[in-house]
């Protein structure tokens, strides 16, 4: 049974996700779908790539990741399949699969059918390709190889100060609880004395769980994504800090200033 894991910015209020699944089931009624999320911020190529990065390893080999975050739909941007050692990725060639583009990865350009909608390639291009891959069709039978896929790197924290006594980071993703997931990997702050500043509000120390602070109090901790996360216990950090996607985050290492 083929597995198709889906990520999009469509949300679930409209018909888009349901129709894509219907198209795939019309090709193979035995497919299994897993909705990773359909709540990527509209046009959020980098957040979609980040969610793929922190999610893919939990899926079985040969999973097809159908990722439709496509601000360039209907333009000259290519449609693609990326084949890696264990997985397939289907979606627009807009950088959303950059993290997976190592030297072993192979990219294939999917043809755009003449009758395809210019606003819904998720239904008319990507869903059929994903269903066929999950049914055992080889990517080279779906499109021609190419060697220059678009790359958009996930931003990494930048050391600031003469001796790197702070990091200039950012919010990469905000979950439905309002937790602010940053681009700071755990290894950069684990077991260190830190202060985190967002929009002029500072949080001191790195906690191990939400229960270490009182209700409605902010805290910094390593979340399940293994990245630095800023939260408010039983509250909403997005509202508390007035933060949005890509809001700057400053991580200070006070002991380096002594």
Lay out the secondary structure.
Layout: E1 3-8, H1 16-27, E2 32-37, H2 45-55, E3 64-68, E4 79-83, E5 88-92, E6 106-110, H3 121-134, E7 144-146, E8 158-160, E9 166-174, E10 180-185, E11 195-198, E12 201-204, E13 218-222, E14 227-232, H4 237-241, E15 248-252
Parallel strand pairs: 1-2, 1-3, 3-5
Antiparallel strand pairs: 4-5, 4-6, 6-7, 8-9, 9-10, 9-15, 10-14, 11-12, 11-15, 13-14
Helix pairs in contact: 1-3
How much of the sequence is in beta strands?
25-35%
Q: Can you write the helix and strand succession as a string?
A: EHEHEEEEHEEEEEEEEHE
Content-based structural category: alpha+beta
Radius of gyration (CA) equals 20 Å
Tell how many strands the DSSP assignment holds: 15
- The number of distinct structural domains comes to 2
Write the CATH fold name of the largest domain. Rossmann fold
In short:
With 258 residues, this protein is of the alpha+beta class.
Task: Explain how this protein is built.
This protein is α+β, with helices and mostly antiparallel strands. The chain folds into two domains: 3-146, S-adenosyl-l-methionine hydroxide adenosyltransferase, N-terminal (Rossmann fold, 3-Layer(aba) Sandwich); 158-257, Bacterial fluorinating enzyme like (Elongation Factor Tu (Ef-tu), domain 3, Beta Barrel). It has helices at 16-27, 45-55, 121-134, 237-241, and strands spanning 3-8, 32-37, 64-68, 79-83, 88-92, 106-110, 144-146, 158-160, 166-174, 180-185, 195-198, 201-204, 218-222, 227-232, 248-252. Strands 8, 9, 10, 11, 12, 13, 14 and 15 form an eight-stranded antiparallel sheet that branches. The chain has a seven-stranded mixed sheet with strand order 2-1-3-5-4-6-7, sandwiched between helices. Helix 1 (16-27) runs parallel beside helix 3 (121-134). It is elongated, with a radius of gyration of 20 Å. The termini are far apart. The relative contact order is 0.13.
